[in-house]
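Section 5.1 Outputs to date
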Amino acid sequence: MTDETTLKLEAAAFRRLREHLQARTDVQNIDLMNLAGFCRNCLSNWYQEAAEEAGLEMDKAQAREIVYGMPYEEWKSKHQAEATDEQKEKFKTSHPGH
């Protein structure tokens, strides 16, 4: 497999993951963090870092809008629920010091 093909496949997989996370608004970021160790915010941070490594200027809000499919504050007001005590406790255990 060529480097170009690998890049195309990785980009397609990223787009599919992004679309899946945009569609699954019922899945809260804290659940993703507790189960997978990353969330939409992590993904947007990685996107921003990749842009900067490529010499592109991108702020956190721009990266989050790409990942969330809308401004972050809009997504939060539409889809983010208050974390339960159980979710918060699991987060403390799985991500101490975070």
